[in-house]
Design goal:
This protein is α+β, with helices and mostly antiparallel strands. It has helices at residues 2-22, 24-27, 31-57, 97-103, 112-118, 182-189, 247-254, and strands at residues 82-96, 109-110, 126-141, 144-145, 149-160, 169-171, 174-178, 194-201, 208-209, 219-225, 232-239, 258-259, 265-271, 284-293, 301-321. Helix content is 25%, strand content 36%. The structure holds 2-acetamido-2-deoxy-beta-D-glucopyranose (5 copies). Residues 1-17 form the signal peptide.
């Protein structure tokens, strides 16, 4: 970081010197040029002493994450917005509505009529919790890219945050996220998310093919918090013969404004119509098992027959907005 400031100082230095020399009052003093060289050389010295110091600190060199993910296709379309791609698995975990009611803060209603209008045959007395196991790739804005990271958690869609009995919000109270990616970690924590810096398997991709499985196309994903025993999530998914939930249901809940402590909302716009979702990559229906140990659930949970989709999408993200801005959002 400090060496970056020095780089800027070094870059600006000749410009400052030029301006000083151009200034008529200063021109008479011959010492200006000497001052310029001395200070330039000292900055240069500091700069290299500094990078040497940071090279020492960086040992051993961190392994570079090389992802199989396709590039962000919309970065140049929305240069002034945060964009990226999200590759991974999204699954629907039916849980008893009574359990959902215990887990979701009591001040927020659950819009059962909203999910029933999208899923008329969803089992009575049940609520669709969501698991997302994702790899964020080429996240950028104004040409500045942040390093890729992974994240996973259980989320609660169709929440009546505004008490209007109509606008659906998604509550995402906790998240396992790649340790060391300070920009992403801080970004999540600023929403009041219970964020667990974690290691992921695979480290730089959305999932890994299990080669010794009896079901071809089975993939694996896992996350473990650095803080021992604090949180974990693992998932094993194989191709499903049919889609249990319509694509529109996934489009709907993934695009609900998301909150954690309710102070601000995250408007993540997932696009299902860009090149990363199109053939030959496509959207694959999957079925699998998810094991999780993370709040607000207590103890280790295991859910089998979790139906979902494996896909990549592009996204545009508008951060830290007043939740009130989304009254009526999506009712178009
Ligand atoms: C998504 O990730 C998987 C696993 O790394 C990879 O095989 C696939 O090509 C990726 N999809 C896209 C569109 O990048
Ligand atoms: C891009 O960012 C601007 C400014 O924050 C915002 O007004 C606009 O809605 C964003 N574009 C999209 C497509 O979300
Ligand atoms: C919320 O809206 C639904 C659908 O319009 C309606 O059936 C239900 O009675 C409403 N609930 C309340 C508390 O107003
Ligand atoms: C893709 O979908 C978004 C909304 O989800 C829409 O705004 C956009 O126009 C679509 N783009 C194309 C090329 O169809
Ligand atoms: C999601 O579904 C609900 C319930 O049918 C609907 O009111 C809302 O407009 C949908 N939102 C989006 C973004 O499609």
């Amino acid at each position: 970081m400090f060496s970056t400031y020095l780089d800027v100082a070094l870059l600006c230095h000749p410009i400052l010197a030029f301006l000083t020399i151009q200034h008529p009052k200063m021109r008479s003093k011959p010492t200006n040029l000497q001052y310029y060289f001395v200070s330039f050389l000292s900055l240069l010295f500091l700069r290299y002493a500094c990078s040497y110091y940071f090279i020492l600190l960086d040992q051993p060199a961190p392994t570079v994450c090389v992802s199989k993910d396709q590039p962000n296709p919309i970065a140049s379309l929305y240069p002034g917005n945060a964009t990226g791609t999200l590759n991974g698995t999204i699954g629907v975990i039916p849980i008893p509505l009574t359990l959902a009611r215990q887990l979701i803060p009591p001040q927020y209603g659950i819009l059962e009529h909203a999910y029933r209008s999208l899923l008329p045959s969803f089992p009575q007395g049940m609520y669709p919790a969501i698991v997302q196991a994702l790899h964020d790739h080429e996240v950028q804005a104004f040409g500045f890219k942040i390093p890729d990271f992974s994240r996973t958690g259980i989320e609660f869609p169709f929440i009546d945050l505004l008490h209007d009995n109509s606008t659906s919000f998604k509550w995402a109270p906790s998240l396992l996220m790649t340790a060391g990616n300070d920009v992403a970690l801080k970004g999540a924590m600023d929403y009041g998310t219970n964020t667990f810096p974690s290691t992921f398997e695979p480290g730089c991709d959305a999932y890994r093919t299990v080669s010794n499985s009896n079901k071809p196309g089975t993939t694996f994903f896992s996350a473990t918090s650095l803080k021992s025993g604090a949180a974990s999530l693992s998932a094993l998914f194989s191709p499903a013969k049919y889609e249990v939930f319509p694509l529109d249901f996934f489009k709907n809940f993934t695009n609900q404004p998301t909150f954690a402590d309710g102070k601000t909302c995250d408007n993540m716009i997932r696009l299902f119509n860009t090149s990363v979702t199109a053939e030959p990559y496509g959207i694959e229906p999957v079925k699998g098992t998810v094991r999780a140990h993370l709040p607000p659930f207590t103890g280790e949970q295991e859910w089998t027959n979790v139906y979902g989709l494996r896909l990549d999408t592009s996204f545009i993200e508008n951060n830290y907005l007043p939740c009130e801005n989304f009254r009526g959002y999506g009712s178009g």
